[in-house]
Amino acid sequence: MIAKMICGTLQSVCDSVLPQIDKYLPGGTGHQTFEDLRKLRNKRLAHHDIAGSVELTDPTDAGIEDFYRDTLEIVSLLMHLVKGVACDMGDTISIYAMYARYFWASARGERTEGHPQYKSSPIEFEPLADK
Is pLDDT above 90 for 25? Predict the structure, then answer.
């Protein structure tokens, strides 16, 4: 009796996680955001290919937020299925927010607009005149 209840519960968790994973597979509504984030990671962040040999489209903030929330939910459900642990990954947001801030700060560089410590240069530099 208890085994049937556990199997039923696990099946319902499995049934709820599969559509979320399918959302980011080819043909899913979030697949383009997933691909944009993967290209951004591979070309600009991981390999520092800033020269722009590949045309990249920046994912929208809403797409990134949806991807982040869906990932938290997927990981929480998979932890429940695989390890039998009930955890709310939303509780980890505050812990990793600090690390994420430092990561993006280093990925952008202090002279890039949007960096947390960005300050526009008060000194205007003029090109040297040709002699």
Answer: yes
